[in-house]
Design brief:
Elements lengths: L1 E3 L12 E2 L1 H10 L4 E6 L7 H10 L9 H5 L1 H4 L5 E8 L3 H8 L9 E2 L8 H20 L3 E6 L7 H8 L3 E2 L5 E2 L7 E8 L2 E2 L18 H5 L5 E3 L2 E2 L5 H4 L8 H7 L2 E3 L3 H4 L19 H4 L3 H5 L3 H8 L9 H15 L5 H6 L6 H14 L2 H13 L3 H20 L26
Parallel strand pairs: 2-10, 5-13
Antiparallel strand pairs: 1-6, 3-4, 4-9, 6-9, 7-8, 11-12
Bound molecules: iron/sulfur cluster (2 copies).
């Protein structure tokens, strides 16, 4: 809990209730163009959705206690109202970068929410500044607390109840002006807002018969409109720890952080206003990370290059694991030497990802590296990955022209027992 607002404004001192019309100009002053408000009563309607979510499997990023997630007064006992804010982040330049990837280069792809500055910092600072202005307006020190992603509150439902927007079948909050490319934040205050709303849940009410997002999801992560198996979402997969499950490696494609598919396909996102906030001007290197350069970075170099972005929090090792998987999907033989270096990493997930990538790239060089690594690898999971990668690379060597002699009839360097007899293998 924090306190703000000691300056007294003689014109308004003593007011203990505000309206949104009082707060809106203050929000615009601090860079929050879209706000709404709800009361601080519990979110009883979340009991069932949270139980269902738990049953589908937690990611570990959520607040653990469901009861605390449903009660704003757990976060701020004195709370009377919640001001919600939607901060648009997709600039015109960002939208162009999302469409036009430099595909001929060995570059990854990130979700457009990490193109600019880390929204946690930006939004928290602006909501804190708003709290100060509200304190000045009511002429007393107010108690407040900011919630941006890391609080127990279910930010999309808080935003929906306040009338900030509606929730689509893709589970995203849509601002009428900016679509779903908005960051959400909330400011809990001990001041009553007279015209705060208390709207019921209405997932998908603007979607009609459309279900494009659910069908387009690369991992089919939606179990029902607005309901996601969170552990199957690629956005989570790129942030999880450990070895990426095999089922998600190919769907990742060249992604190294996040996924935008269920927003990109949405017709409700067409013709919406773009953000003009300079803090979200896209950084080309964050939008299309150079995968080979990323694999050569220390953690310090990584933070220097990507530290301003919201994808920096997991550190360089997670990004390198994702880059290895992306290189496997890109199948670029020139990446074999840098990928093979990770077969000797001290991290199991990096060795396993390097093995998988080499199996996907295939070729004699990849096979040689895999065989050498297999001879010294001790970890049973990584040994299995290498074994499977060798089999995969064999298949690719046999199915392609690799290793064929000049006439195309024999297998010049191949020492596999089948000697090119793929069917008999
Ligand atoms: Fe599916 Fe991607 Fe949307 Fe996750 S972000 S639900 S993987 S489309
Ligand atoms: Fe709704 Fe269709 Fe958009 Fe999904 S893609 S959120 S179903 S309008």
């Amino acid at each position: 809990m924090r306190r703000a607002g000691a300056e007294r404004d003689p014109a308004v001192t003593g007011r203990d209730k505000l309206t949104l019309a009082d707060i809106r100009p203050l929000a615009e002053e601090v860079g929050l163009p879209e706000i709404a408000a709800t009361d601080a009563s519990p979110f009883d309607d979340l009991a069932r959705p949270l139980a269902d979510y738990e049953a589908r499997g937690r990611t570990g990023f959520e607040w653990a206690d469901a009861a605390e997630r449903m009660d704003p007064r757990f976060w701020l006992p004195e709370a009377k109202s919640i001001v919600t804010a939607a901060l648009p982040y997709l600039t015109e330049e960002g939208a162009r970068r999302m469409r036009e990837h430099p595909r001929s280069e060995i570059r990854g792809q990130t979700s457009c929410y990490v193109y600019g500055e880390d929204y946690h910092r930006v939004l928290s600072d602006r909501l804190t500044a708003l709290a100060g202005r509200i304190g000045n307006l009511v002429g007393r020190e107010i108690r407040y607390r900011v919630a941006v992603d890391t609080s127990p509150l279910v930010d999309r439902r808080v935003a929906e109840r306040s009338g900030l927007g509606w929730i689509g079948k893709n589970g995203m909050l849509f601002s009428p002006r900016y679509g779903s490319y908005v960051f959400l934040g909330a400011l809990l205050i001990d001041v009553e807002i007279e015209d705060a709303l208390h709207l019921p849940p209405a997932i998908g009410k603007h979607c009609g018969d459309c279900d494009l997002c659910m069908r387009a999801c690369p991992t089919q992560a939606f179990v029902a409109p607005g309901e996601l198996k969170a552990t199957a979402c690629l956005s989570y997969v790129t942030q999880m720890k450990g070895i990426i499950p095999r089922a998600y490696r190919k769907p990742l494609g060249r992604r190294v952080w996040g996924c935008d598919v269920c927003q990109q396909v949405c017709p409700l996102n067409r013709d919406r206003a773009h953000a003009e906030d300079p803090v979200f001007t896209p950084d080309a290197e964050a939008a299309y990370p150079d995968l080979v350069r990323l694999l050569g970075m220390s953690n310090r170099q990584f933070l220097r290059a990507y530290g301003r972005s919201a994808m920096a929090w997991r550190g360089v090792r997670t990004m390198q694991r994702n880059a290895l998987v992306a290189l496997g999907n890109l199948r670029r033989p020139e990446a074999v030497p840098i990928v093979a270096r990770f077969l000797a990493s001290d991290r199991v997930e990096l060795r396993a990802s390097a093995a998988w990538a080499l199996g996907e790239i295939g070729g004699q060089d990849a096979l040689r590296e895999l065989r050498a690594a297999f001879a010294s690898e001790q970890d049973p999971d990584v040994r299995k990955e290498i074994e499977d990668a060798i089999a995969n690379a064999w298949g690719k060597a046999c199915e392609g022209d690799e290793g064929r002699d000049e006439t195309g009839s024999g297998y010049r360097d191949c020492d596999h027992p089948c000697r090119g007899d793929v069917a008999g293998r």
